[in-house]
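[09:14] KT: can someone run the structure on this one? pasting the chain below
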Amino acid sequence: MDDTSRSTPTDGHAVDAGLFREAMSRLAAAVHVVTTRGPEGRAGFTATAVASISDTPPTLLVCLNRRSLSAPAFHHAGRFAVNMLTGAQETVAQSFGGRGGLSGEQRFGVGHWQEGALGLPCLVGALAVFECRLVEARTVATHDVLVGRVEHVTLGPARESLVYLGREFRRL
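[09:31] RB: done, structure tokens below
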């Protein structure tokens, strides 16, 4: 290791949160906006913690910060859509990530949205949209891991992806 490396504890304790965040900032991750619609209306948030679990049956997971104002809506609705963003949709990611001061329903004023097959808000022109039924939610540390069975997929045009790396959005 070079001289910029820092050792990790060997006594079973977790590494420093700041060190962990710095290391994770070096991981390029696809950017998504995860949305739902429930009795409270539409809600959504920007996420990079999205992963495929299985293709049989098609299942994916999303990590949602429990402190998010939209968290209760996801639990009550029991379904969600994962909108995979193109490089041209950075303003949507910023809006749903809390930049610009928009919240709740106001965020859906950025981008063009339509109702999907499950009645969920789906971003027009996204690389792909996965509409899911919530099959499990598990609390891990500060987040809820939402596991969804994919019931509908919409493929958008093949374009460059929006990724997050080094604490900034980039096009790939």
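[09:33] KT: thanks! The longest strand covers residues 128-140.
[09:34] RB: yep, looked fine to me
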